[in-house]
Amino acid sequence: MAYGLATRPVRAEIRGHTVGYVLGLPHADVLVAGYLLATVGALPLSGDPWLRGLGLLAGAGALLCRALWRLEPVSTWCAVVAACSVTVFGWVTRRPPAAARLRGGERP
Of the residues 39, 52, 67, 74, which has the fewest C-beta atoms closer than 10 A? Predict the structure, then answer.
């Protein structure tokens, strides 16, 4: 997908209340599924409850975007990812620095 974005023309169009992106990528559904699997798929399997929550939030958001905006889910996916970034911020700020974890005997 990244190669296609870097080497092909990209066009954005207003479609109703969303923005549609025209990339002309072959097998776009398979590429999007692979992208979601790579970026969201492992998170629900994490031992960390914040990361599991992030995975569930992102996965539910992807399904919601697809269900509500069948033609243009990418436009609303950006808003879901912004909400997920708040979860990542909470995860990062609640953890002690790596040096403190190591002094306390925890493994990073």
Answer: 67
